[in-house]
Amino acid sequence: MVAVAGKEDAVMKREKHSSFVHAENVEFLPTKVVKAKAPKRTSHYKHAYLQFHLGEQNPNIHFTRYQSPSAFRRAGAFIPRSLKYMHIYDYRLSPYMGCTKRCIYCFELVHRSVRKNEVKVKTNTAKYVRKVLPTLNDRKAVLVDGYDCEEIEKEVKLLRNSLNVLLEFKMPVFVQTKSSLVLRDIDKLERLSECTELTTVAFSLTSLEEEHARIFEPYTTSPEERIKAMQKLSRRGILTGITLMPILPFISDTDKILEHIFSAATDVGCSYVIPEPLRVTGVGPQRNNVFQVIRKHYLDLLPKYERLYPRDHYGPEFGTRPRSRTYLYDLFRRIRAKGRKYKISTRFPMSKFEKVS
After folding, report:
1. Which of 188, 232, 242, 342 could form a disulfide with 262 if both were Cys (CB 3.0 to 4.6 A apart)?
2. By C-alpha distance, which of 213, 194, 95 is closest to 143?
3. Domain 7-33+44-352 bears CATH identifier 3.20.20.70
4. What predicted TM-score, i.e. pTM, was given to this entire model?
């Protein structure tokens, strides 16, 4: 478990272990207004290599390479729930099973199909995507994830190669990530934004507090770097947003923290902030991981967490939101108020797009 240290120590640790990356073969296209009315590209953006920092490499991870049709499949139970119910996407492009980041609250940490500290690499991803796309009858966006597996993706470039295929078929994309590695592929995303109904990158954030990142997601790209990456994408005319998840009750849901997030989002051209509270299973390893951290770092909150997330041997596989309508009502009320204050949608702005058939 990561010990609590001073904020300056945490920043120094991230800088010491982070990977410094130069984007490869980045080319910039002429300015063009996209249908999504994404932020306009700025004229002062320099034609130079993009530079960005990644999260700390997890030394315990090992990789297994194999081929699987799960590289491109129905989106399933992916959250936030609101995105699924709005039917923005039906399919998910996922080159990796498991995740290198091992965030405390994540269900990938206890994935039944991977062993402890294992990440499976679907080497046939781009080839399989090319095979499947011609058979699709709709033009909904493809949910793209996997940039969080930073070190292996830098090597095998499964996502970059898959974006080339999506570009050939002019498929709309919805990228979900915690990683600034997405900047490596800004050239492909820019081209997609030129020729598709929807191209958007949503960065997952728990909060912008370094302490929270250090405790709950120590191997991820820092929250500050994610905000910087969002700004760079927005400047190239790519629609960006935040999936505010998981919101940690009584930890990352304070008015001060929400104010910080919405203020920063406004400054970098963010178009939407979609909230999703922490989900915890009634029993099992995911619940154990969350409650172990609460006991160690936030012991005074333990009774509140036990009330919000009671034990349930028959609960859903992917957990439940807090079991308090009063808490949820107040949380979403305050988030909507921040959205109105900063003129940022707290739902995905479907009204900005032509309906995808």
Report:
1. 342
2. 95
3. yes
4. 0.84
